[in-house]
Amino acid sequence: MLYYLFNYLDQLDFPGAGMFKYVSFRSALALILSLFISTAIGRRIIDKLQMLQIGETVRNLGLEGQMSKKGTPTMGGIIIIIAIVVPTLLCAKLTNIYVILMLVTTIWLGALGFADDYIKVFRKNKEGMHGKFKIIGQIGLGLIVGLVLFMSPDVVIKENMEVRHGDVIEEVRFHTVEKKSTKTTIPFVKNNNFDYAQLVDWAGEYKEEAAWLVFVLMVIFVVTAVSNGANLTDGLDGLAAGSSAIIGVALGILAYMSSHFEFASFLNIMFIPGAEELVVFAAAFIGATVGFLWYNAYPAQVFMGDTGSLTLGGIIAVFAIIIRKELLIPILCGIFLVENLSVLMQTFYFKYTKKKYGEGRRIFKMAPLHHHFQKAGNAGIQALIQKPFNVVPESKIVVRFWLIGIILAVITIVTLKMR
To answer: In this predicted structure, which of 117-121, 144-148, 333-337, 384-388 has the lowest mean pLDDT?
Structure first.
């Protein structure tokens, strides 16, 4: 909104109004606003949640410091959502299709997570929303995002082309014509491009339509997987918020690179017109998650609940899809991926051993993985990962996961130059 106001004032030669034309200025402003909003309203929302007795229900699982969390206000994801939406509305171009998609994603998954938390807190159902309804909500968002990217005439790219002399790349050029495409960025290969159409060569004359179908299915899968991964990661104070902030910085850099001719040429990735507005959203996202850490860092004064974790995961997934970097998610969101895999492995192995031996056995002492390091003793199988060791303090686990997240974010960007 401020963009349009100051654009009008700039036409009247109002001093300083032209600053709002620059993405860098608006991104910095969005970051400052989101930090201010999340810290300023955070205390009031926490007090309100305490007054309504919206506290975390904790089962005693034998984890260090676990019972001290009982009664801590949850549903704090409301703070994050407000701190993202308000600065974005104020600082971004609201006619930009990518900004619209990000706002829809934030509100959609925020509402889904809120409904889940509401059932847990007010209806005293510790399981929350039935899993199938949560999946339906995630699939619904995936369909919306995928179909909009397919149908909107504003969603176009300029493909990168390598000019080679022998085996040496002399320069990277871009097609002069903007076009719709099912191509995405993939590391370790020439041109850094992969076309989903290559998966449906058998479709013949319907290859283009089939490629978009595959693309939409990929969108649904990525949105569901990443949002659930963020949800599982939200088990220690500050872990999900801090990890998401790190990922947000990497995505913001990639969005800026993808919308800048020189930087896109340097990384040899496709140029995406309009993606620069996503930098403003990324700045608001980073500010909101960092501001939330003011209250969520150990020992937490508030938990984000599914209201926050589903939203953060969904935002990361849709953002990566929009800038055609979804195939980098396994590296960038490695923390989420490992947390997801640890639960799947634990569940599968437990069921398998129970069927085979009549007694369920575990790979980890507890899943998701971050709880494995909190729990003393042995889970039942004599594997290297099961050897007894001293329980790791919660704050140390979180910081170490953050450090791993930073390393993965750097590797994600570096991989684009490794071919």
So the answer is: 384-388
Contact between 194 and 325 (Cβ < 8 Å):
no
What tokens were used for 147?
């179909």
- Give the C-alpha separation, 299 to 262, whole Å: 44
Phi, psi of 391 (to 5 degrees): -65, 135
Average pLDDT, the chain: 86
For residue 257, the 8-state DSSP code is H
Q: What are the Cα distances from residue 74, in Å, to 57, 58, 118, 369?
A: 9, 12, 10, 22
Average pLDDT over residues 57-78: 69
pLDDT tens per residue across span 299-341: 888 889 899 999 999 999 999 999 999 999 999 999 999 999 9
Q: What is the 3-state secondary structure (H, E, C) of 97-161?
A: HHHHHHHHHHHHHHHHHHHHHHHHHHCCCCCCCCHHHHHHHHHHHHHHHHHHHHHCCCCCEECEE
Residue 192: helix, strand or coil by DSSP? helix
Q: For residues 91 and 102, give the distance between their C-alpha atoms in angstroms, rounded to a whole number.
A: 14
Return all residues near 260 (Cβ < 8 A) that are at least 6 apart.
276
Question: Which residue has 């935002």 as its token pair?
Answer: 315
pLDDT at position 373: 82
Q: What is the rounded CA–CA span in Å between residue 89 and residue 415? A: 34
**Lookup: tokens for 400:** 């170490």
Q: Read out DSSP for 377-408?
A: S--SS--GGGS--PPPPHHHHHHHHHHHHHHH
CA angle, residues 334, 188, 197, in degrees to nearest 5: 95
Cα(21)–Cα(26) distance, integer angstroms: 8
The residue among 223, 42, 49 whose CA lies nearest residue 136 is 223
Average pLDDT over residues 382-409: 79
Structure tokens belonging to residue 87: 């600065």
Give strand pairing partners of 194.
184
Amino acid, single-letter form, for residue 314? G
Task: Determine the Cα–Cα distance for residues 416 and 187; give it in Å rounded to an integer.
Answer: 5
CB count within 10 Å of CB 223 equals 30
Is 164 buried (19+), middle (13-18) or exposed (0-12) by CB count in 10 A? exposed
pLDDT digits (tens, 9 = 90+) for 220-235: 999 999 999 999 998 8
